[in-house]
Amino acid sequence: MKKKTFFTALAMAGCIGLVGCGAGATASNETTESKQTETTEEKASVIDYMVLVNKENALPDKWEDEVSLTKSTNSLGDEVQTESRAYDAYLELKKDLEADGVYVDLDSAFRGVEAQKKIVEDFTKKYGETYVKQYVAVPGFSEHHTGLALDLYLNIDGKDVYMNEDMVEYPEIWEKIHAKLADHGFILRYLEGKESVTGFNYEPWHIRYIDNVDLAKEITEKGITLEEYLGKLPKGDVTPPKDTE
Known about the structure:
The protein is α+β, with helices and mostly antiparallel strands. It has helices spanning 4-9, 40-44, 63-66, 84-98, 113-127, 129-135, 164-167, 171-181, 195-198, 213-222, 226-230; strands at 69-73, 79-83, 103-108, 149-156, 159-161, 186-188, 206-209.
């Protein structure tokens, strides 16, 4: 499993990766700092919310120059940047979940191409090439570059739960979270059993904003991936290596 603590340490550089937590947790700083050259709505209008970025499809040119980002601070004290419209939708999702006693926070969202290069280098040294191929996207081909992919973590009984191996111990909580994603324009991105399509193992914490509730519901109800919905199945074998640990 990938080590969440190391991911969190790199978050300030735009690292990998799950705001407002429950009792005893530090409240999220919802103060936003968007780029000032254009309004959020003006910049959001140039973003293709159905963009496909995966192992075979690179981030579109100039995306990082055009995307509008909102900064926030999670309960761990880490700064996270998220595409602005996706962040607003996330706050609504968070509020909806809290009404049912479920508390989540943002581990990471936007991660720049240069930061991804640093991750690959550091993780290769720390965990080896097999681990990197299994869990870390090639720079330029990570969905996190879009700012539309959000990694969540949990807050349970006032305690932050952010290590992957710990988070997977709460399938009933993830089920509640997944049930509300589409209502706010999100889909679960890396489905279980779809590794040969997405190129990544199942990640209950990795959600993707598509800015369309109806489409999100359709994709969710059909149990398909973004690749399948768009009719852009991989041309080669993208199945991640099996975990040998």
